[in-house]
Amino acid sequence: MEFFKEQVHSYISGLDEKQVKKMELNSLLNLIDMFNDISDVEVEGSFSKLSKLIINIINEETPSYKEYKRDFNVLKKLVRKTYGFIKKGTLKEESIGAGVAIGVALGVAIPSGGNVAFMSIGIPIGIAIGAGIGRKREKEAEEKGLLY
User: Fold this and answer.
1) Helix 41-59 × helix 25-34 angle, to 10°
2) Does residue 126 sit in the same domain as residue 60?
3) What tens digit of pLDDT does each residue of 35-93 get?
4) What's the number of domains the chain is made of?
5) Which of 10, 27, 68, 89 has its CA 20 to 30 A from that of 121?
6) pLDDT of 63
7) Is residue 66 located within the same domain as residue 48?
């Protein structure tokens, strides 16, 4: 895995900050670190494919990130399903989404006397609840060493 880590570090030097952020290369480096003591042929194959796609993006005048993003998402789903590794921020995002849904239901359930303004009060409440739950879930995952 050190080989892939060194490759990604060398690629980062050829990209600007915007591209590094868009391609989530720091998350990729963190994920590679998670596999220092784990040997998985499928994951290593995904790292290799992503490495080739990064080279293609660097060499293109107008880079297309579509295939890279798709393959990186496949890798993220694989490591979450197989090992329980989760990208930092994912659990919070999922919980906020659920919180919004709960907030909408709360807004409808709150007796508002037909005033639409009162119906919208549930959404921020749901966001706050979701953010709190997401923070707690991420803290637990971090303590278990599952965040990258």
Assistant:
1) 160
2) no
3) 988 999 999 999 999 999 999 998 888 888 999 999 999 999 999 999 999 999 999 99
4) 2
5) 89
6) 81
7) yes
**CA–CA separation, 34 and 19 (whole Å):** 23
Mean pLDDT of 2-21: 90
Examine the domain organization and report whether 32 and 96 are in the same domain: no
Helices (H) and strands (E) in the chain, counts: 8, 0
The predicted structure's pLDDT at residue 112: 62
Q: What is the mean pLDDT of the chain?
A: 91
Q: Which residues contact 85 (CB under 8 A, 6 or more apart)?
A: 31, 34, 79, 146, 147, 148
What are 147's strand-pairing partners? 86
In this structure, are 113 and 65 located in the same domain? no
Asked if 48 and 121 sit in the same domain, the reply is no
Assign 109 to helix, strand or coil.
Answer: helix
CA within 13 Å, CB half, 13: 5
